[in-house]
Design brief:
By secondary structure, the protein is of the alpha+beta class. It has 16 helices and 15 strands. It is extended and about 105 Å long.
Length: 506
C-alpha cells in the first residue's frame, strides 16, 4: 500500500467583515474537505493555512506572516514535503495579482513539488506531470486574468466612488469619514462638525501660552503637572503633540484630501485636489495662527532678526561654485545697500565675481515667478508633457487589449495559444504605463509649484513668515540659482535642464 500524501487547505477572504464572521472561510474549507473524500490517496493535514482580511490584489497574503506566505516558507524549509497537495476553492484564492505574476506564483508552488487542487474546477495540476495539458493551461491563464481584472475594476470603482464622496463632502454634503480633529465631533447625520467646547478652549489656551513666550516643552510640562487629560487618552502631553496642534491648519478650518494607493505592498498617501479652506469650523483666528507661526520662524531667523535673504541656501557663484551670501553695505545716505556676494570674493579674494544688487534681483525673480518664466523648463513641466503622451499611449494599448480579449472568446484553442502571449505582453505594457503615470502624478502632486503659485497670490515681501515659507518651497524644486548682473540661471532638482532669465524683462 502506497504512503498517503498530505493535503493542505488554503482559504482566503479579503473583506474584513467577512473575515470576522468566518462564513466565507468555512465555506471554502468545507467544500475542500468534501472534495478530498474522492481522493483517498491524500490525507487531510491538521495544519490549515488561512488569510482572513488579506488582499490578494495587492499581494498582502504573500507576506511571510500571512497564510499563503507561511505556506511558501514551509515549502522552502521542507516542512511541507514534495508530493503534497494544496487545495484551494479557485485560483483567485491564491491571489488576484497581474496574470504573469499570478502564473509565476502558481509555478513556484509546483516547483516545490506541490500539486495544486482547484476544487470548483475538479482539477488537480500535478507538479510531477511531464504532460503539457493545453486546456488546463488555458483555463489557468484565463482564470488568473479574470481574477485580476475583476479586482482591478472593483478597485477603480471604489476609487471613483471615494472621489465622488470627497467632492460631496467638500461641497457641504455628507462627510466621508467620522475622523476629525480632536476638538471636533461629526454630527449624527454626518453633514456637519460640532466643536467640543472644552477641547477647543484648551487648544486656544495652547496658542495663548505660545504667544506669551512659552515653548512646547514648557506647555506640555505644565499640562502634565496640572493633570489635564490628553485628547488621545495617552498618559502625558508631549512636545510633539503640542507642536502638532500649534502648526496644523485644521484649526483654521482647512482640510487636505489624500488618496491612498498600494506601492510594493506599502500605503502611499498622495494629496488630492486643492486645500478646502472652509471644511471644519474655525477655532483659531487667522491672525493669531500666523503670529504663532512667526514665533517658530523667528527661532531660526538670520543675524538681523528676520528673513532678509529670500534665496538662502540656493544662490551659487557661476564662476567658482562657491555660495553667494546676502550682505549689506553702508552708504552715504545712511540707507544700507544689499548685495549677493561670492564668499570667495570677500573672504578669500579667490574669485572675481561682481556682486549683484539684491533688491533688483529679488524683484525680477518674483516677477519671473508670477509670469511663469521660472518653471517653464522645470522637471515638473517636462514630466507633465511626458504624462500627456503616456495617457495617449495607454488609450491605444487598452484598445488593443480589448480587441485581443474579444478575439480570444471567438478563437480556437490553437489560436488562443498565440493570442494569450500577446495579451500578457499588453498587460505588461499597460501596467508599466500606468505605473509611470501614477509615479508621475505623485511627483507632480508632491511638487511645490502649486503651493508656490497659491502663496504668490497674497505674497507680501515684508512678511517674514511668507518669505521663509516661499524659501522652503523653492528649495524643494530648485537646486541652485546663479545670479549675475544681467541674468540668472536656475538649476532644477531631478532634471538636467536649466532655465536662464534675463534681468531686464523682454
Amino acid at each position: 500500500m502506497s504512503k498517503l500524501q498530505n493535503a493542505y487547505l488554503y482559504s482566503r477572504v479579503s473583506n474584513v467583515d467577512a473575515a470576522k464572521h468566518g462564513e466565507g472561510l468555512r465555506r471554502q474549507q468545507e467544500k475542500a474537505k468534501d472534495w478530498l473524500k474522492n481522493y483517498p490517496n491524500y490525507k487531510l493535514s491538521d495544519k490549515v493555512f488561512v488569510d482572513a482580511g488579506k488582499s490578494g490584489y495587492h499581494g498582502a497574503n504573500l507576506d511571510p506572516q500571512a497564510g499563503l506566505g507561511s505556506f511558501l516558507e514551509a515549502c522552502e524549509r521542507g516542512i511541507v514535503l514534495p508530493g503534497s497537495l494544496l487545495c484551494v476553492e479557485l485560483v483567485d484564492r491564491l491571489g488576484r495579482l497581474p496574470p504573469r505574476q499570478a502564473k509565476n506564483l502558481f509555478n513556484k508552488i509546483l516547483d516545490y513539488g506541490i500539486s495544486v487542487a482547484i476544487v470548483k474546477w475538479n482539477l488537480i495540476v500535478d507538479a510531477f506531470s511531464n504532460n503539457d495539458d493545453l486546456s488546463s493551461d488555458l483555463l489557468l491563464t484565463v482564470g488568473f486574468h479574470l481574477a485580476y481584472m475583476e479586482s482591478k475594476q472593483k478597485s477603480e470603482r471604489i476609487r471613483a466612488t471615494h472621489a465622488i464622496r470627497r467632492q460631496v463632502a467638500l461641497s457641504g454634503g455628507k462627510k466621508r469619514t467620522a475622523v476629525a480633529p480632536a476638538w471636533l465631533r461629526l454630527s449624527d447625520d454626518r453633514s456637519t462638525f460640532t466643536v467640543i467646547k472644552s477641547r477647543a478652549e484648551l487648544i486656544q489656551k495652547i496658542y495663548q501660552l505660545k504667544l506669551g513666550g512659552k515653548g512646547a516643552n514648557i506647555i506640555a510640562r505644565e499640562f502634565n503637572e496640572q493633570g489635564i487629560p490628553t485628547f488621545s487618552g495617552k498618559p502625558k502631553w508631549s512636545k510633539t503633540t503640542i507642536n502638532t496642534y500649534l502648526r496644523t491648519t485644521a484649526v483654521l478650518g482647512h482640510f487636505q484630501a489624500h488618496t491612498v494607493t498600494m506601492v510594493n505592498g506599502k500605503r502611499v498617501y498622495t494629496k488630492s485636489g486643492d486645500v478646502n479652506t472652509d471644511y471644519y469650523p474655525e477655532i483659531i483666528d487667522e491672525s493669531i495662527f500666523y503670529q504663532v507661526q512667526s514665533t517658530f520662524k523667528n527661532n531660526n531667523a538670520g543675524r538681523f532678526g528676520n528673513f532678509q535673504n529670500l534665496f538662502r541656501g540656493m544662490t551659487k557663484c557661476d564662476l567658482c561654485g562657491s555660495t553667494m551670501s546676502w550682505t549689506r553695505s553702508p552708504s552715504s545716505t545712511g540707507i544700507p545697500n544689499f548685495y549677493l556676494r561670492c564668499t570667495n570674493v570677500y573672504l578669500k579674494k579667490l574669485c572675481s565675481k561682481p556682486s549683484v544688487k539684491y533688491e533688483a534681483f529679488e524683484d525680477r525673480f518674483i516677477d519671473a515667478l508670477l509670469n511663469g518664466e521660472i518653471f517653464k523648463d522645470s522637471f515638473e513641466s517636462e514630466l507633465s508633457e511626458k504624462s500627456k503622451q503616456a495617457k495617449a499611449d495607454l488609450h491605444i494599448l487598452q484598445q488593443q487589449k480589448s480587441n485581443i480579449q474579444e478575439a480570444i472568446t471567438l478563437a480556437s484553442p490553437e489560436a488562443i495559444t498565440e493570442l494569450v502571449p500577446l495579451l500578457d505582453q499588453l498587460h505588461l505594457q499597460i501596467n508599466a504605463t500606468k505605473q509611470f503615470l501614477f509615479e508621475s502624478q505623485q511627483q507632480i502632486n508632491n511638487s511645490p509649484i502649486q503651493e508656490i503659485n497659491s502663496l504668490l497670490r497674497t505674497f507680501d515681501t515684508k512678511n517674514q513668515t511668507q518669505r521663509e515659507q516661499l524659501n522652503l518651497l523653492l528649495k524643494r524644486t530648485i537646486a541652485t540659482i546663479k545670479p549675475s548682473r544681467d541674468s540668472f540661471t536656475i538649476d532644477f532638482k531631478n532634471s538636467e535642464k536649466s532655465s536662464k532669465i534675463n534681468m531686464i524683462q523682454c
